[in-house]
Design a protein that fits this description.
alpha+beta; 3 domains; 19 helices
């Protein structure tokens, strides 16, 4: 097995993936400007809500974020063309991680997946054919790569799909409750609108999602089912793209399929001028890469740990949100929160008016009324805002939460002063109230 990992194979799949990957991230960056995403999420907000611990990352002033995204788009094109490949990819990775961390009101799992793939691609020889780097320096040219380069990509997607499958095994998914919520809002959709409201369709989508996520990797690996899996992937991802409008993720997911087909097939279909491998190419010797030991092994071990960490934290992750991110828990629930921040002057004991609606965007309001980290961060922002005025405050939270249109229940302990509360990065925050399966409050 280890020996096979270093067997030379045609590098056509990796080259094609680099081209597709560069095109997709360029599109993601430029389209974000023209759809107004950059303006709505990074320019209009007057309050910054980054990932906890990254308060120093704030959007650039003025039109700065437009230039930021234009630069990412240009770097994406450079990656596609294989121009100064590692510099371009490294620069894009830093910029993308920066924008990922500086806001979390608008979040998609493919933002995280992009980071992971960027990190992987930094270690892969994806610029050794059909690239401007090779044109400038012909000595870089190679027709082959070690087999492990393809395996790495397959393992990455296997992790994504496996944990996406596992996360769906909960009652509101299995009985079609959440898919019903998801598709009922599309009742005015042309032609299929009436179908989207039918219970049988909600059940079908729920189990189709489980079977697709659970079986797509094995089906792509097995030659006899590979073409069927390809067709299923096209139908599944294009349907999601059209109905759910989830950005580049469907096309990004499809781009990985090149690693499941034989390299010769990819070369024949997409690089007709690329020479076939000769005996000397197949006898090429690849030595053990330190990257496998020092980067990829810890990299994948961490990815296996992160999605299961919620099992070791008290409470239901669907309610608490603790350990929800970085776990491939994709499109699983709808949360509606009603939250009031009660601000008390510590000296006068009087309540001070504070209207979060006037200060936050719609997506930020959703974050700070239904997510515990958002609530905690908003409380810290309020505390700092009053501190600048020379006022020391206590902040108490009156929060009610509904998951998947279930009855509202008190979410946050109303007796806790959030001006003093701390955020637990690795465990349960005791100020999040917990309930048993019957909906009864669990005493601390």
């Amino acid at each position: 097995m280890l020996k096979k990992a270093f067997t030379p194979i045609d590098n056509a799949p990796l080259i094609l993936f680099r081209i597709t990957f560069g095109l997709l991230i360029a599109a993601e960056s430029i389209v974000a400007i023209f759809t107004g995403w950059v303006k709505k999420n990074l320019m209009e907000p007057t309050v910054s809500i980054p990932h906890i611990g990254f308060d120093f990352l704030v959007p650039l002033p003025g039109y700065g974020m437009y230039f930021y995204y234009i630069l990412m788009g240009v770097l994406g094109i450079f990656i596609m063309l294989g121009y100064k490949y590692r510099f371009s990819l490294g620069s894009f990775t830093i910029l993308w991680i920066g924008v990922y961390l500086m806001q979390k009101a608008s979040y998609n799992n493919h933002y995280y997946l992009l980071i992971l793939v960027c990190l992987i691609m930094l270690f892969l020889p994806a610029n050794q054919y059909a690239s401007l780097d090779v044109k400038k320096n012909p000595s870089l040219k190679s027709l082959t790569m070690p087999q492990w380069c393809s395996w790495i990509m397959i393992v990455q997607m296997a992790i994504v799909y496996f944990f996406a499958t596992l996360a769906k095994f909960y009652p509101d998914w299995l009985d079609g409750t959440f898919t019903g919520i998801l598709f009922s809002s599309l009742s005015n959709y042309p032609v299929l609108g009436s179908v989207f409201t039918e219970n049988w369709f909600h059940i079908f989508i729920a189990y189709a999602g489980i079977f697709f996520d659970g079986l797509i990797i094995p089906a792509l690996l097995w030659k006899k089912t590979r073409n069927i899996a390809l067709i299923a992937s096209l139908l599944f991802h294009l349907f999601n793209s059209i109905t759910l409008q989830i950005g580049i993720f469907p096309y990004f997911a499809l781009s990985f399929i090149v690693f499941f087909y034989s390299p010769e097939t990819i070369r024949y279909l997409f690089f007709k001028k690329k020479p076939q491998l000769q005996l000397e190419d197949l006898n090429k010797s690849y030595t053990f890469s330190k990257a496998l030991t020092y980067f990829f092994i810890p990299f994948f071990i961490l990815q296996l740990i992160l999605p299961i960490r919620h099992y070791f934290i008290k409470g239901d992750v669907l309610w608490t949100e603790e350990a929800h991110r970085l776990s491939w828990r994709m499109m699983l629930r709808q949360k509606n929160g009603i939250t009031h921040f009660k601000v008390i002057d510590k000296n006068t004991k009087q309540e001070l008016p504070y209207n979060i609606v006037e200060k936050l965007t719609r997506k930020q309001l959703s974050l700070v009324t239904s997510k515990p980290d958002g609530i905690w961060q908003m409380a810290q922002h309020i505390k700092k805002e009053f501190a600048k005025k020379g006022v020391t405050v206590s902040i108490f939270i009156d929060s009610k939460l509904s998951v998947n249109n279930k009855p509202y229940k008190t979410f946050i302990d109303p007796t806790v002063d959030f001006a003093e509360a701390e955020w637990n990065y690795f465990g349960h925050n005791d100020w999040i109230l917990l309930y048993d399966k019957q909906g009864n409050l669990i005493e601390k």
